[in-house]
Amino acid sequence: MNVNKLKNYFPIFEWGVNYNKLTFSNDIMxxxxxxxxxxxQSLAYAMLAGLPPEMGLYASMLxxxxxxxxxxxxxxxxxPVAVVSLLTAASIGKFALPGSSEYIIxxxxxxxxxxxxxxxxxxxxxxxxxxxxxxxxxxxxxxxxGIIIVTSQLKHILGxxxxxxxxxxxxxxxxxNINDFSFIxxxxxxxxxxxxxWVRNGLYPLLLSVGFKRHSASLISKIGPVAAIIxxxxxxxxxxxxxxxxxxxxxxxxxxxxxxxxxFSFSVWNSLIGSAILLSLIGFVESISVAQTLAAKRRQRIxxxxxxxxxxxxxxxxxxxxxxxxxxxxxxxxxxxxxxxxTPAAGAFTAIGLCLVSLxxxxxxxxxxxxxxxATIIVAVISLIDFSILKKTWFYSKADFMAxxxxxxxxxxxxxxxxVIAGILTSIxxxxxxxxxxxxxxxxxxxxxxxxxxxxRHNVITDPKILTIRVDESLYFANTRFLEDRxxxxxxxxxxxxxxxxxxxxxxxxDMSALASLELINERLIISGVKFHLSExxxxxxxxxxxxxxxxxxxxxxxxxxxxTNSLTK
Amino acid sequence: MNVNKLKNYFPIFEWGVNYNKLTFSNDIMxxxxxxxxxxxQSLAYAMLAGLPPEMGLYASMLxxxxxxxxxxxxxxxxxPVAVVSLLTAASIGKFALPGSSEYIIxxxxxxxxxxxxxxxxxxxxxxxxxxxxxxxxxxxxxxxxGIIIVTSQLKHILGxxxxxxxxxxxxxxxxxNINDFSFIxxxxxxxxxxxxxWVRNGLYPLLLSVGFKRHSASLISKIGPVAAIIxxxxxxxxxxxxxxxxxxxxxxxxxxxxxxxxxFSFSVWNSLIGSAILLSLIGFVESISVAQTLAAKRRQRIxxxxxxxxxxxxxxxxxxxxxxxxxxxxxxxxxxxxxxxxTPAAGAFTAIGLCLVSLxxxxxxxxxxxxxxxATIIVAVISLIDFSILKKTWFYSKADFMAxxxxxxxxxxxxxxxxVIAGILTSIxxxxxxxxxxxxxxxxxxxxxxxxxxxxRHNVITDPKILTIRVDESLYFANTRFLEDRxxxxxxxxxxxxxxxxxxxxxxxxDMSALASLELINERLIISGVKFHLSExxxxxxxxxxxxxxxxxxxxxxxxxxxxTNSLTK
Lengths: 570, 570
Description:
- The structure is a homodimer.
- Chain A is mainly alpha-helical.
- Chain A folds into 3 domains: 3-392, no CATH class; 400-436, no CATH class; 440-569, STAS domain (Transcription Regulator spoIIAA, 2-Layer Sandwich).
- Helix content of chain A is 62%, strand content 5%.
- Chain A has a 6-stranded mixed β-sheet with strand order 4-3-5-6-7-8. The first copy, chain A, has a two-stranded antiparallel sheet with strand order 1-2.
- In chain A, strand 5, helix 21 (480-493) and strand 6 (499-503) form a beta-alpha-beta unit.
- The termini of chain A are far apart.
- At the A-B interface, helix 8, helix 13, helix 18, helix 20 and helix 21 of A face helix 8, helix 13, helix 18, helix 20 and helix 21 of B.
């Protein structure tokens, strides 16, 4: 295997050879900041997934290192992220109870299956499957997920129990338990939320005004949430608030993750396979978008197929080190980038940082209130909620609006997986519907030119014996019947018609269905005593048509230019 | 409601006003021939569906009359057809035993649901849904169905019991019962098959040689099968072969169909809904194809939306008159046409003919051997089996070949419904896959012209600061990521690049996903210090883009012609 090929499959060889002292110190610095930021995030997203907090930490160790070896982005930071954690909870929650050992094994199995699936996609270059998740569907889904996540965390802020996989379930259970409301918990939760919003919006200008540089001010405000963690933990510990009903994280095992093995039970795999596929594709789409944005800043290249392998390895890593499904996260990657990370080694150093936390600092978070973690999640996730896509699609395309609207509605009312599937199906249906009625124009010759234009828009010359139709779309199974129908309609109206010409200047491909349709049109026009012609067929399309039955039996001719069809009347 | 509108919804007013003596006598003649031909066909297809033979007759009475009122084809003959009967058996057989009263009610309910579904499609102009059934998938499905039908009828020819919904089941049950083999049955079956093949291929030339005209010779050979019915019935009756194990049709109730009422049980509807949709769409596609072929001969017009309503009403008619699901049949329609039918009144007369048969002649078919009916089915269906679609698609498009191959394989090995669904899903997947990698060319200027061509095919001038990409496909959710990736790849390779131009001459539409992608590309190119331009954007596309965020924030310009981009370097 030559070196270039090796670089393709192990991008680490690409940047590893140029590694030096400066890149090292930059990477170390970035790793320190990201580590501080990741501790609360990791704990919080594990809690969101219904898993023990340490699993969030574990999910940011081995996965980061594996991504550093196999991934193509220099600065992407992988780990548990909000939407993937929500999907994890939704898919496992269907058949196991949060907190149970089956639940934990299911999470590990989900990460394993997701890893295998992503690697298969990458290896066979099947990344195009992610295209089924159209932009409006993803946007709608993320917004609806954000709403569900925020609602699901309200229980920690209010100190009451709740559960459920859609808005209606969560809210109704919340209300039925509202008598358990804990004022102290609520006070901690709300003040953390307010503090975090202030950190996000008010701290940065404050730091600037007291003389910090833009860059450091921005980074400090990014790690601000840790202050909330520390303050609220000390507060709870000092006043022994856990005796007054404030729920705390409790004992988090000290030490490195132990080796975990996914389940290979058929029934578990059968229940998880659909979720694993959805989760993988959504994670991939989110991750590659972050990676490409960051890469553009330094004109670096992201290879989507290799990204699939990188993310797949990261998930396998999570599966074997007691983690949960992971993907590239937006905020952590941006912080990593802004903190000056130059190579994936920064990720590896972050992993080491988290190992140290896990080895020595977990006893310190015993008194960390769950309300603080919930507040962290809520503040992080509220920025995902963005209804502007509804407005945008409404003005640009009502059909896309329908897809977004349905995605949001189904996600909120039925659940996240149903929402994604509804979105995908609607997108496909809409695409087939739209392309099933392509723009078709009857054209005529613009006087004294060789140009042919739409008869209903321009003053053009037509011949009653010739009908020329321009189709502004490639011909494929969804739209051929429409074309057929249009032609039959025209010939039933115009009884002195002798020639039908299809002007193919906008036809990029003709699939087998369309070919069969053209054959049928030709046969039927022969029966009707009308000749069938094509004009302006593109080179690649003509190459494919050559030698087919259709061309062999075509009653008319193939004209290079539409202008040449004038010879038909001479 | 004005008269023209009335004509749209009740095509009968279109042809009814011009009805005269000549059309009447032509229609009566056609009806007589079609009636003779339909008797064995109707009995046979009811048997194929696992239903009592009289239901086949009933399904050709009221449905034909309703189609005559609501349908747009002048000569289409509706009734039970092979593929629809097979689908009926497959869908009902899942939860009821052939011969049981639940089975019969399920068939009636299926016809009812199919009728309602078709009428809804027609009313809301949703006929495009039939486009999901691409031509290769339909061809493959019909061929595979033909094989299953032929195999399923072998039991009647061999005189043994069999059952099952796919090739493997049917054949294995057949072999396990092979000891019941009845030689007399086999002799009747095989000689009928041979006779029918001779009627099809040998009778016509014989009739010509003895002086018949082409037209009459052709029609006589079409009604030849009746001779087999009469001969084998007399043969069985005379030799009392029913005592020697030859299975006969037995008692068929005399008289007109009684009013039947579909089931409205939720569980029945739930089990049948998917089948009803598939069956309706397949029936519609088959029917409209026949109707259009016949209409082309007389330059008449078929209105697909009204056809849906016509077929829907026919199925409702079947549901309320103890029939089974129906659609327009190929052979009966061709015979109707060839026999000189001029208006749908011929269909009404056929219905009257069948009523007379049902009122007076059913005792005559008591001794009709089932082997004869099976032979009728086999000979009719063998012409449906056509593997040439495999060869055609193999040469034209490997992807379409895959769709056909999978449809045939799944239909044969798993069952008819699974086969259709596999075919539909594969077609969509293939379409998304193919359009997800559109043809993209980097173009340059042909020296001394204003034309721009593919750099890898022509000797053209390019500027290292400008990259011009021509996309030969409309932009939509399936292919935007491919375009994005291509652009990012190019800018990561060419570090002195300052401008990226997308030449949009072949882009017919830009959906919301693609718009979002263009926005992203623009943003990322701004970060990379590259300006983003479009050229040769089509009118309708530009109209939609106006006022969007993308255009407002576009870093570059929109050039009317690609040639104008040369101003970028000045």
